């Protein structure tokens, strides 16, 4: 029997329509927050909040996310993941 594999879908952690921030309650960051570690989710919300206030440019939204992660003492792994996402968004 061959295992069937569907497309790999990367669910976003959160997004905004420009007014409201929607958080994906199935995301790992949300699940971590529910267990008491809300730093990564706070970074995501800071990113989306930047979009709500300033518009849809990605580079400054990622800078805000990284700023919040560093202020809150995020792990190097979480910071690196956001730095990678920021680099991807510039391509
Ligand atoms: Zn963004």
Verbal overview:
With 91 residues, this protein is mainly alpha-helical. The chain has one domain (17-89). The protein contains four helices and two strands. It has helices at 28-34, 39-54, 58-71, 76-89, and strands at residues 14-16, 21-23. It has a two-stranded antiparallel ribbon with strand order 1-2. A hairpin with a 4-residue loop joins strand 1 (14-16) and strand 2. Helix 2 packs antiparallel against helix 3 (58-71) and helix 3 (58-71) runs antiparallel to helix 4 (76-89). It starts with 13 loop residues before the first strand and ends with a helix. The model has no long low-confidence stretch (mean pLDDT 92). Zinc ion (ZN) binds next to helix 2 and helix 3.
What key attributes describe this structure?
91 residues, mainly alpha, 2 strands, globular, binds zinc ion
Total strands: 2
Structural class: mainly alpha
Strand content: 5-15%
Number of structural domains: 1
Into which percent range does the helicity of residues fall? 55-70%
Largest sheet, in brief, is:
2 strands, antiparallel
The molecules bound to the chains, other than polymers, are: zinc ion
Kindly report how far apart the N and C termini lie: 40 Å
Order of helices and strands: EEHHHH
Low-confidence stretches: none
Q: What would you call the shape?
A: globular
Q: Supply Rg.
A: 14 Å
Question: For the residues shown, what is the average pLDDT?
Answer: 92
